[in-house]
């Protein structure tokens, strides 16, 4: 019977792009272990056991396969139900264990040992192990390098011909960076295996015209794929003139990629045949999976399990397919007959239905693609995998993503931040402010306000646009023009009305336009050339917008040649509204030897507003990329161990259920009755150096007087109820109470006002300042998120809040404060102040935000933190109200711990 945590099982990508399944060993693995050992070479056996060991005895097998998952743990890696690697640890002291590996000879060099070390190390830490020791023969250089290159703090000794390595298992920046780098290389190669196949089989190729199977086959052939294409049909000898085979197993040659277009209920059988054949990857265009309900979802999970177990990645199901314009491949494994030419844009789309229309629009605009992937239900391959690939792909200069949901939001933001530092990432999210996840896709609906989604994308460096048209508008600048070095825009044209539209649009977009240079309706191409050269030479011009309306005599081609020529040697982006043409008209294109549109082509837009918006996207992105990233400051007074103990104690008291705590930013409200006690909330905040003012709940005037005496004067009596500030118009507090009679009178006044609707509390009064609200928690779409706003009725009603991803850098914290419209109230003198010494201490507020972000990022059990109000005055940021809701932590926190593929049910 299983007695190990479910999250100890995982699918992983290996360094060559294949996959393997990791799981704990069980007594049922006895035969697999014998077969595995029998395939090991004498050298590998000697390296593992330091002696010849040609056969395992029954006693050995029982000892190796029977573990307690506590002091003795072993993990195995399997491919196609065959054991290919084993790692194990045995405790030798309370915090120390011996670790040993063995990898089958034919699978050595694929990164199995490295990924197994990550997973066995994580399991060991859960069981209280802090150090691994490993004895390795000096000639076993490959295994020594696995330990040395893991990034952990290591020590090495040599005794009696054996090297002893000691590894501190505490994760370090180096070990995390090593893990992320290996993850990136492995996932990139797994996508490269899909995009660069040497042979393709179409399983389900049909003799009937316009069917999915025949369409896929014709598109591969019509796209001039550079390798052999094999139709698979159970009866036909040929399909569209190409020899067909009854099954993939009957094809005599190696198959790298299989396009699967059969009924959903037969797909798994086909996948099993592909596994037996040794196919590297699958594109499942068939529908009838997660998008049709629970039965389809179960079928989808089985598809992914079967494929990954055999080392294959899956695109789809219910997808349009993939394409690679590289002339050495010319792969059109999609259901779209016409692909754009080769170009610098990588495109990922979840939607198969929209994929064909998207490809058509790209072609109409004269743009080119490097690669295209429509992932459909994203059962396996997702946009995150493509970002890993595009980061290293020299053919891709711009990344476009059409997103309907985020399968692993934490990983998305991490990868997007890293990729956007090198290449622009433009994303359009379908559904506007919709809060649901498309059927068949993994959980991850975007449940924050729409403006919050935009700000979080911007923080991660992603250019978020509203629709596909705007996506292509932005892509034209990113792909074919340099980035602007600043916000100042030069405007040149022969129509004063269009020029004024450009200037107004630039102001609305936050740019700084110069006064337009109006060349007049009779302007010649030479006039445009002179004006553009002058703008290019001006240091205070960072981008150029040219508007052109043809005069009575046709000079359009001459102006187009000028625009194209000036763009070729320009270090400033040039865009135009040219004859109301959209895209990259032939007249404005710079074309390479192979017919592809190259850098230097001038993007044209049908309206000035569209042109300016595209320039604004490029400007904001350039500013984000050039700014300093900020730092994560060292914070004193953080006690994670005490925080963990406090959470454990509070969870036992509260015993929350899934219904008690909603996602931060979700639709449901938090139930006040399920919040942890104010004492536990204050204790948990204190573990991260956040001091919350204590308060005492009272039920009578005399209790209020006693409480004020305990806490000290001047005192405050206030009503405590959710949303009271908005509903009560701010009259729920009686402050500056300096005598017992003041307290007694205040209590009676509030009791009479609320009639028992709200509990009353007594608190020591803080010096006057600016009241603010800090909220944080775990959001289903982005992970840990922090929000900030002023504790003001108007701010609440206008939803004047800002959002950032946790953990915050010092620059993130400053941005979070400045982003609210009411922020100027924090940077001036408060009413009655007479000197700068009384100005609110914004630096203390920034530190508070950073501390809160570290808290919620460290503990997934924290569903929601509500600090309301936080009073910011000259002496600091004072937490006067604190509520906190906990939830049972997820067994596996996405993007935390050893690398793994997005999970399915094992």
UniProtKB/TrEMBL annotation:
Q: Which domain of life is it from?
A: Bacteria
Q: Where is the N-acetyltransferase domain positioned along the sequence?
A: 20-170
Return the EC number: 2.3.1.-
Record PROSITE patterns: ATP_GRASP (PS50975), GNAT (PS51186)
Q: Which residues form the ATP-grasp domain?
A: 682-719
Which CDD domains does this chain map to?
NAT_SF
- Report keywords, A-Z: Acyltransferase, ATP-binding, Nucleotide-binding, Transferase
Question: What Pfam families does this protein map onto?
Answer: Acetyltransf_1, ATP-grasp_5, CoA_binding_2, Succ_CoA_lig
Q: List the SUPFAM superfamilies hit by this protein, alphabetically.
A: Acyl-CoA N-acyltransferases (Nat) (SSF55729), Glutathione synthetase ATP-binding domain-like (SSF56059), NAD(P)-binding Rossmann-fold domains (SSF51735), Succinyl-CoA synthetase domains (SSF52210)
The record ties this protein, via InterPro entries, to: Acyl_CoA_acyltransferase (IPR016181), ATP-grasp (IPR011761), ATP_grasp_subdomain_1 (IPR013815), CoA-bd (IPR003781), GNAT_dom (IPR000182), NAD(P)-bd_dom_sf (IPR036291), Succ_CoA_lig_flav_dom (IPR032875), Succinyl-CoA_synth-like (IPR016102)
An example molecular function term from Gene Ontology annotations: metal ion binding
**Cleavable signal peptide:** none
Q: Which of the seven top EC classes does this enzyme belong to?
A: transferase
- PANTHER family, from UniProt? COA BINDING DOMAIN CONTAINING PROTEIN, PEPTIDYL-LYSINE N-ACETYLTRANSFERASE PATZ
- Stated name of the protein: GNAT family N-acetyltransferase
Q: Which organism is it from?
A: Nocardiopsis eucommiae
């Amino acid at each position: 019977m299983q007695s190990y945590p479910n999250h100890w099982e995982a699918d992983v990508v290996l360094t060559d792009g294949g996959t393997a399944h990791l799981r704990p060993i069980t007594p049922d693995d006895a035969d697999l272990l014998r077969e595995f050992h029998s395939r090991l070479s004498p050298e590998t056996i000697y390296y593992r056991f330091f002696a010849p060991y040609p056969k395992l005895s029954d006693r050995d097998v029982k000892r190796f396969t029977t573990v307690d998952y506590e002091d003795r743990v072993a993990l195995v890696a399997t491919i196609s139900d065959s054991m290919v690697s084993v790692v194990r640890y045995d405790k030798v002291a309370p915090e120390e264990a011996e670790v040993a590996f063995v990898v089958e000879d034919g699978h050595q060099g694929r990164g199995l040992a490295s990924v197994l070390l990550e997973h066995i190390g994580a399991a060991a830490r859960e069981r209280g192990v802090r150090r691994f020791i490993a004895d390795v023969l000096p000639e076993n250089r490959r295994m020594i390098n696995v330990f040395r290159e893991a990034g952990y703090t290591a020590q090495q000794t040599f005794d009696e011909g054996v090297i002893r390595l000691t590894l501190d298992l505490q994760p370090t920046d180096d070990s995390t960076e090593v893990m992320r780098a290996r993850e990136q290389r492995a996932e990139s190669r797994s996508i490269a295996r899909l995009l660069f196949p040497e042979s393709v089989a179409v399983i389900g190729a049909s003799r009937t015209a316009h069917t999915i199977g025949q369409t896929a086959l014709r598109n591969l052939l019509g796209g001039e794929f550079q390798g052999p294409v094999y139709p698979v049909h159970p009866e036909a000898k040929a399909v569209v003139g190409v020899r067909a085979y009854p099954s993939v197993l009957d094809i005599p040659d190696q198959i790298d990629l299989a396009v699967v277009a059969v009924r959903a209920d037969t797909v798994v059988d086909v996948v099993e045949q592909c596994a037996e054949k040794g196919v590297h990857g699958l594109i499942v265009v068939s529908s009838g999976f997660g998008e049709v309900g629970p039965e389809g979802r179960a079928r989808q999970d089985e598809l992914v399990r079967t494929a990954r177990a055999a080392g294959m990645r899956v695109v789809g199901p219910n997808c349009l397919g993939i394409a690679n314009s590289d002339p050495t491949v010319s792969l059109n494994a999609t259901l779209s007959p016409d692909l754009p030419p080769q170009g610098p844009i990588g495109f990922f789309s979840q939607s198969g239905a929209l994929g064909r229309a998207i490809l058509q629009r790209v072609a109409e605009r004269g743009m080119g693609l490097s690669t295209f992937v429509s992932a459909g239900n994203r059962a396996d391959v997702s946009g995150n995998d493509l970002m890993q690939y595009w980061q290293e792909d020299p053919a891709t200069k711009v990344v476009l993503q059409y997103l309907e949901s985020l399968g692993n939001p934490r990983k998305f933001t991490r990868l997007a931040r890293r990729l956007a530092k090198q290449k622009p990432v433009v994303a359009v999210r379908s559904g506007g402010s919709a809060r649901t996840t498309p059927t068949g896709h993994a959980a991850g609906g975007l449940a924050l306000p729409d403006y919050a989604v935009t700000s979080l994308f911007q923080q991660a460096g992603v250019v978020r646009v509203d629709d596909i048209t705007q996506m292509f508008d932005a892509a034209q600048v990113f792909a074919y023009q340099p980035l602007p070095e600043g916000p100042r825009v030069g405007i040149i044209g022969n129509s004063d009305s269009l020029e004024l539209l450009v200037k107004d649009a630039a102001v609305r977009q936050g740019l700084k336009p110069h006064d337009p240079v109006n060349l007049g309706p009779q302007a010649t191409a030479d006039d445009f050339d002179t004006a553009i050269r002058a703008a290019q030479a001006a240091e205070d011009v960072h981008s150029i917008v040219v508007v052109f309306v043809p005069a009575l005599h046709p000079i359009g081609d001459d102006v187009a040649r000028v625009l194209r020529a000036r763009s070729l040697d320009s270090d400033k982006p040039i865009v135009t509204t040219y004859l109301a043409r959209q895209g990259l008209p032939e007249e404005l294109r710079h074309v390479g030897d192979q017919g592809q549109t190259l850098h230097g082509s001038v993007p044209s837009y049908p309206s000035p507003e569209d042109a300016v918006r595209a320039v604004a996207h490029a400007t904001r992105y350039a500013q984000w990329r050039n700014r300093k990233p900020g730092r994560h400051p060292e914070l004193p007074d953080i006690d994670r161990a005490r925080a963990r103990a406090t959470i454990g104690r509070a969870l036992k008291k509260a015993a929350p259920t899934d219904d008690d705590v909603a996602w931060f930013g979700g639709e449901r409200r938090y139930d006040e009755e399920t919040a942890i006690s104010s004492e536990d909330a204050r204790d948990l905040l204190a573990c991260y150096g956040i001091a919350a003012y204590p308060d005492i709940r009272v039920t009578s005037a005399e209790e209020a007087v006693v409480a004020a005496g305990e806490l000290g004067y001047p005192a405050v009596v206030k009503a405590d109820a959710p949303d009271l500030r908005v509903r009560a118009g701010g009259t729920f507090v009686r402050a500056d109470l300096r005598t017992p009679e003041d307290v007694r009178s205040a209590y009676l006044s509030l009791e009479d006002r609320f009639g028992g609707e709200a509990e009353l509390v007594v608190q020591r009064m803080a010096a006057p300042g600016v009241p603010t609200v800090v909220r944080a928690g775990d959001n289903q779409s982005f992970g840990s998120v922090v929000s900030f706003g002023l504790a003001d009725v108007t701010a609440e009603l206008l939803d004047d809040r800002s959002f950032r991803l946790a953990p915050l850098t010092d620059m993130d914290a400053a941005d979070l404060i400045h982003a609210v419209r009411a922020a100027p109230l924090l940077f001036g003198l408060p009413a009655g102040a007479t000197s700068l010494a009384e100005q609110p201490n914004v630096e203390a507020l920034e530190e508070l935000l950073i501390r809160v972000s570290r808290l919620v990022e460290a503990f997934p059990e924290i569903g929601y933190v509500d600090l309301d109000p936080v009073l910011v005055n000259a002496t600091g940021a004072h937490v006067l109200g604190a509520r906190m809701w906990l939830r049972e932590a997820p067994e596996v926190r996405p993007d935390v711990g050893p690398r793994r593929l997005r999970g399915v049910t094992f």
